[in-house]
Design a protein that fits this description.
heterodimer; A: 65 residues; alpha+beta; Alpha-Beta Plaits; two-stranded antiparallel ribbon; B: 401 residues; Cytochrome p450; three-stranded antiparallel beta sheet; 15 helices; 11 strands; oxidoreductase activity, acting on paired donors, with incorporation or reduction of molecular oxygen (chain B); Cyt_P450_CS (chain B); heme (chain B)
Chain lengths: 65, 401
């Protein structure tokens, strides 16, 4: 699983940090998404999927390869 | 195109007696017919009412649907040919991009998950102070004034830098915008007083910046007029929404004693409990959009210019999305409610609201194990459906001493 984010789309809701805090954080200056673990281990996949689904701006995508 | 859609002729003004937490019966009935219904706006303009979870969420994420104030139609009041002006500078709730982003962007770093969690201790302290005061004064008390209103009001005022001594009058003015029962004359007076107050506040921050969000915002290219509009949106949103969640949430817990007991027994349930109360109560119940171009939604064509009502609280009770949607279940696993909206306008202050509720609900039920209503439940006065934010007007409670 590999995660990419589009910071331009991000609206700083924090839903990804709330849902998968080991994988995502927000920049302290502008609140935009940062990926802490672009290739998260298998046990975090469910929460990453949930974060992708909950993102209000569709700013996160992941691929399985 | 299939059969013609269900039509809703009038928007409900009241809820079913005895069901203060459920969306009005007419809206639940509309959802049973399908996720999208026709609705004719006052004055005869045809539009739509969307009640299904998936469709509400997709319209919120769709930039073909506008939030611009000048394009929105009131769902129940006919203003005739009056053309609403665009939202004033800074009032970014009723704007589209790029205007909206000019105001949201400088605020995004101020309301991050991390920053809001750092406020936990302060929320705990304010909550404890108010519970102490309740205990000292003894029962009965009105939980709205003793608990639900002051906690979020103090937090947003401290964040923005509204001086403590100004909070009371400001809170009253905001309440009069939001309660759905203020006469036009009083509304104008409250709005004018608020505008004048905020103009003085912005000028004071520019002259003497302090360690607060409003002062930080003066260090940029935003004009005083814009800052005033932003402050208005943040204060009104911060004061009225969480306050109504706390009081209506306490009411819901008192009416579901086994759920209240579960929360008291297991503080680790707090995160899930807050999400479930948000889903179940959804105090921000409807928002409007207007189609900018023809758009297919749920197999129907919404024509350019058509007004759309999005029913958040019905979407949050959608049986296709949530099992047993009308049951308050603090252990519920399926998240993803729309209480804070979706899309680019999703609530900026949601992480603050979460911290406030995560602290306040468990603290309340922990401090007063025998908390109960001091009046029969049907006598608890509710806000009318015409109010933008739903809630109780007062919540008389008592406990054993």
């Amino acid at each position: 699983m590999r995660i990419t984010v589009d910071a331009e789309r991000c609206v700083g809701s924090g839903m990804c940090v709330l849902t998968a805090g080991e994988v995502f954080d927000q920049r302290q200056d502008d609140g935009k998404v940062i990926v802490l673990r672009p290739e998260p281990p298998a046990e975090m996949r469910d929460s990453v999927r949930e974060a992708v689904d909950l993102c209000p701006a569709a700013a996160i995508v992941f691929s399985l390869h | 195109m299939g059969e013609s859609p269900h039509t809703v002729t009038t928007m409900p003004t009241v809820r079913q007696p005895g069901c203060p937490f459920d969306p009005p019966a007419e809206l639940l009935d509309a959802r049973r017919h399908g996720p999208i219904s026709r609705y004719t706006f006052p004055g005869g303009r045809p539009g739509w009412l969307i009640t299904g979870f998936d469709l509400v969420r997709s319209v919120l994420a769709d930039s073909r649907f506008s939030s611009r104030k000048e394009l929105l139609l009131h769902p129940t009041i006919d203003y005739g040919d009056f053309e609403a002006p665009p939202a004033p500078p800074g009032e970014f709730l009723l704007m589209d991009e790029p205007r909206h982003g000019r105001y949201r962007k400088p605020l995004m770093g101020k309301f991050t998950v991390r920053r809001m969690r750092l406020l936990t201790e302060r929320v705990e302290q304010i909550t404890a102070d108010h519970l102490d005061a309740m205990e000292k004064a003894g029962p009965p008390t009105d939980l709205v004034t003793a608990f639900a209103k002051p906690i979020p009001a103090i937090m947003i005022c401290e964040l923005l830098g509204v001086p403590y001594e100004d909070r009371g009058s400001f809170q009253e003015q905001v309440d009069s915008f939001m309660n759905g029962e203020t006469s036009d004359e009083d509304l104008i007076a409250a709005y004018t007083a608020t505008q004048e107050y905020l103009a003085r506040l912005v000028a004071a921050k520019r002259a003497n910046p302090a360690d607060d969000v409003l002062s930080d915002l003066t260090d940029g290219d935003l004009t005083d007029e814009e800052l005033k509009g932003m402050a208005l949106i943040l204060l009104a949103a911060g004061i009225d929404t969480t306050a109504n969640m706390l009081s209506l949430g306490a009411f819901a817990l008192l009416r579901n004693p086994e759920q209240l007991a579960a929360l008291r027994a297991d503080p680790a349930l707090a995160d899930r409990a807050v999400e479930e109360l948000l889903r179940y109560l959804g105090v921000a119940k409807t928002f409007m959009r207007t189609a900018l171009e023809d758009a297919e939604v749920g197999g129907r064509t919404i024509k350019a210019g058509s007004p759309v009502i999005l029913s958040y609280n019905t979407a949050n009770r959608d049986p296709e999305r949530f099992a047993d949607p009308h049951v308050l279940d603090l252990r519920r696993q399926d998240g993803g409610h729309l209480a804070f909206g979706h899309g680019i306008h999703q609530c900026l202050g949601q992480q603050l609201a979460r911290v406030e509720m995560r602290v306040a609900f468990p603290a309340l039920v922990d401090r007063f194990p025998a908390l109960r209503l001091a009046v029969p439940p049907e006598e608890v006065a509710l806000r009318p459906e015409t109010a933008d934010i739903y809630g109780v007007k007062s919540l008389p409670v008592t406990w054993d001493v």
